[in-house]
Amino acid sequence: MCGRYTLFTPVEELESRFGVTFGEGFEPSYNCAPGEDLPVVTAEDPDRATQMTWGLTPSWAEEPFELINARAETIRGKRSFADAYESRRCLVPADGFYEWVDAGDGSGKRPYRVAFEDDRPFAMAGLYERWTPPKPETTQTDLGAFGRGTDANERENGDGDRTRETFAVVTTEPNDLVADLHHRMAVILAPDEEERWLHGDPEEAAAMMDPYPAAGMEAYPVSTRVNAAGTDGADLIEPIGVE
Fold first, then answer.
1. Cβ distance 126 to 170 under 8 Å?
2. Residue 182: predicted pLDDT
């Protein structure tokens, strides 16, 4: 699976790499976690990265979901993802992701960072959805949690409701490197596949969900500080020794 990732590449490099503007709201992170507002690239808004919440909620849901991953093998048959796969695919910029491995000594799981050897940014395949809370049968003042704030990923429609924009990362079988860490990995798109993932038909997109080749990638152990969502800092990606 993909439950944490990094995106700390300087914004100028990201904008050059993906051909979009990231905007003033972009904050580099060494520990991108579910529930956070993070940048994705869509065909609907091709000139800028859009902040969406990691944890997809289907448009038909009665309450928020937190679907952080979508399995490539079943994506077209799952009600939660089928519509988004057909018409709302996105790119999730990253420059690494974390996986956890049992340390084997009773101390729990040890985090590893997986990235390209040169730390270059890449795009993970994603899906996104828009979800509007159901209208309550009571008064507008009884909205409770649905009436919170004006988050970057919420847009007000003409009826005064808040539409949440959310995304999930598509996963597939691991390549030879990741297989030693986990039985799943994020779908990494080759640069020449990114536009076709956004604009191509579902059959074409299906051919892009194979494991990315391990050549040129590396995996190394990092501090368990990354285990805590909300923890950030360059020290999180520093290699640590393993006895």
1. yes
2. 95
Calpha distance 213→129 (Å, rounded): 29
Question: Which pLDDT score, from 0 to 100, does residue 155 have?
Answer: 54
The pLDDT tens digits for 63-102 are: 988 999 999 999 999 999 999 999 999 999 999 999 999 8
Instruction: Please work out, in degrees rounded to the nearest 5, the angle formed at the alpha carbon of residue 88 by the alpha carbons of 83 and 93.
Output: 135
- Other Cβ atoms closer than 10 A to 87: 10
pTM of the model: 0.89
pLDDT value of position 153: 60
The predicted model gives 169-174 an average pLDDT of: 98
Does residue 67 or residue 136 have the better pLDDT?
Answer: 67
Q: Bridge partners of 222?
A: none
Dihedral, 129, 72, 21, 152 alpha carbons, nearest 10: 30
Percent residues over pLDDT 90 in the chain: 78
Q: C-alpha dihedral over 189, 182, 13, 37, to 10 degrees? A: 100
Q: Which residues are catalytic?
A: 2, 99
